[in-house]
Amino acid sequence: PFEAAIFDLDGVIVDTAKFHYQAWRRLAGELGFAFSEEQNEQLKGVSRMESLELLLRAGGITDLMPEQKETLASRKNEWYKGLLETLTPYDVLPGVCSFLGLLHSRGVRTAIASASKNAPLILEKVRIRPLFDVVVDGNSIVRAKPDPEVFLEAARQLGASPDGCYVFEDAAAGVEGAIRAGMRVIGIGDGQMLARAHLTVNSLEQLEPVFLLSHIGVNGH
Ligand code: G6P
Ligand code: MG
Hints:
alpha/beta, globular, binds 6-O-phosphono-alpha-D-glucopyranose, binds magnesium ion, metal-binding, B-phosphoglucomutase_hydrolase
């Protein structure tokens, strides 16, 4: 049975993945190395400090003290939050609101499962918090994706069993975490990058009719 839909936030619900990349690239630039969009794929879904570790490794920087790392992560986050200031409800990705509306009308419960500590701020800025029954984010979980913790906690709060949950993810680490949680995963984005997902589409907009027909047995239109 299809009990619940669990959504990643950055890059699935809101177009904030590009802001993370801009801020990380700026930090790399200040540290004196280039950071490509391809390299950035590895950072998606990964916690802030682990992302920094991956970035530093990409730049060959191995000699920083923990306090220096904290400072760098804070700077990135300040730039990122500056970019978040520009967010409006128009930054909700295409298809999201209608998809959530259809899920609710079929009695499917919904959650956000994000590694981000900025998730509450983002949800408030784009005004879609009321569309989710549950929000689990980087402020309440300990182990980041690809650990399944964030997904299992969302399912627990929704009162759903993992095999009744579908996860929607744009990051390889998130796809992996959802699989480890025993859930089915829909990859949003590049099929090659998200090869372990059960199905991959370019956006939720594209998914809606296909998904509803084959998994809930409803013709959405
Ligand atoms: C999400 C994003 C990552 C980000 C992480 C932590 O998973 O996909 O790119 O690093 O959240 O976000 P934060 O807003 O707490 O730095
Ligand atoms: Mg994401």
